[in-house]
């Protein structure tokens, strides 16, 4: 019985660890979603800007305007590269935190299974004791009846 109490205490600690891991995972997921949204916004902005450049180019652009457009597109491409890198890092952090949560959940479940097995063993032991007592009682009753 003491073993179960100890395991139950460990389960409680594992539940707290699982909850903390779930919170960290959710924060990482939100950060990843934010990064991904920012990346997509930047991609749309770049595409819109290139469409505008194409439209302006069809109407005629001065060399200086074209150079300015080109330089701005290069800066957008650099920003996109940084945003993609940040998004990839955020994705990796999320995946690590998710794995941490899955590991914490598995640890808690393993201990819960140990508790269930221990409880089942205790019930089986109690049943054997009761059966032994019943058998002993029946034997004594039989002996008493036989001797009379």
TrEMBL record:
GO terms for molecular function: cytoskeletal motor activity. One of its GO terms (cellular component) is plasma membrane. Residues 7-34 form a coiled coil. It comes from the Bacteria. Transmembrane segments: none annotated. It is found in: Cell membrane. InterPro entries: Flag_assembly_chemotaxis_eff, Flag_FliJ_proteobac, Flagell_FliJ, FliJ. Keywords: Bacterial flagellum biogenesis, Bacterial flagellum protein export, Cell membrane, Cell projection, Chemotaxis, Cilium, Coiled coil, Flagellum, Membrane, Protein transport, Transport. The keyword Protein transport applies. The keyword Transferase does not apply. GO terms for biological process: bacterial-type flagellum organization; bacterial-type flagellum-dependent cell motility; chemotaxis; protein transport. Belongs to the FliJ family. This is Flagellar FliJ protein. It comes from Neiella marina.
